[in-house]
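Propose amino acids for all 268 sites.
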């Protein structure tokens, strides 16, 4: 998928669907496979937090597409929008956000009333809800812990979208409540220092960082996918996502071949 195709429609085409291009769909299937190895196999419900250092690196895009792709296997999946400052999941799925996570955590709604079908198979969505004045407090509360315990009974996977780690503490609070954390790094944008900083923060709170997802990759052009991308004639070899380095479960991976560049041109 060429970057311009995505921008033209304000991100709508960045969602995996039956008409998505081959490389995009395959990249998310690879992420799904890697996750199935990296998350604890013996747990009935696997809880994954997707985060990144800064805004606009692709957290919402990656968490939404990962959730859609896992739900295609018939697993029961819930995507939670835990970015209570700049929630975007509801706009991606075109669903209403009047009642969501913040309302549940503040005791104003029952969690089942805050879950809606996504329109994508077995995937359900809990949107962020009304933007609260105290997101970090809500997300670190016992209510959040208890909510996850309740949800474990109903779902095979709970995927949590979040706020950027280097700006606010919200996702750090959550990282210790889930089984694994995947860090999104944006090619030609995320910096080494920011990524290192994020990883040390996550380590400090004892998060289980299971991998890095490199977003917005430009294919170097010698692989199977490049060939297919040309065949479908969409992107001239560009496609959006790649599991990072050797994929999940092999540590952090930054610092070897696929380095994020040092410049940072999209820290909005
Ligand atoms: N691989 C990509 N190619 C093109 N546009 C992308 C890609 N990943 C994300 N975007 C776009 O960048 C913007 C920010 O992405 P988003 O997932 O909302 O980031 P975050 O949740 O980290 O703030 C959105 O408009 C999204 O559609
Ligand atoms: Mg987001």
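Proposal:
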């Amino acid at each position: 998928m060429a970057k311009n195709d995505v921008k033209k429609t304000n991100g709508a085409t960045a969602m995996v669907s039956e008409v998505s291009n081959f490389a995009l769909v395959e990249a998310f299937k690879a992420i799904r496979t890697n996750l199935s190895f990296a998350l604890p196999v013996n747990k009935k419900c696997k809880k994954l937090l997707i985060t990144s250092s800064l805004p606009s690196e692709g957290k919402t895009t990656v968490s939404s597409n990962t959730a859609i792709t896992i739900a295609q296997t018939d697993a029961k999946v819930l995507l939670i929008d835990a970015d209570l400052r700049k929630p975007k999941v509801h706009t991606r799925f075109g669903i209403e956000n009047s009642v969501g996570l913040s309302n549940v955590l503040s005791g104003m709604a029952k969690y089942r009333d805050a879950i809606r079908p996504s329109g994508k198979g077995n995937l359900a969505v809990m949107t962020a809800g009304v933007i609260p004045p105290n997101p970090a407090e809500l997300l670190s509360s016992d209510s959040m812990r208890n909510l996850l315990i309740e949800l474990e009974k109903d779902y095979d996977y709970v995927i949590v979208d979040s706020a950027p780690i280097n700006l606010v503490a919200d996702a750090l609070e959550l990282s210790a409540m889930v089984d694994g954390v995947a860090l999104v790094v944006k090619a030609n944008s995320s910096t080494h220092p920011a990524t290192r900083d994020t990883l040390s923060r996550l380590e400090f709170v004892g998060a289980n960082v299971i991998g890095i997802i490199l977003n917005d990759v430009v294919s170097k052009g010698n692989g199977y996918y490049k060939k297919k991308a040309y065949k479908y004639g969409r992107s001239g070899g560009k496609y959006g996502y790649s599991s990072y380095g050797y994929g999940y479960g092999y540590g952090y991976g930054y610092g070897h071949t696929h380095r994020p560049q040092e410049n940072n041109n999209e820290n909005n």
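Residues 32 and 70 are 6 Å apart (CA to CA). The chain has one domain: 3-243.
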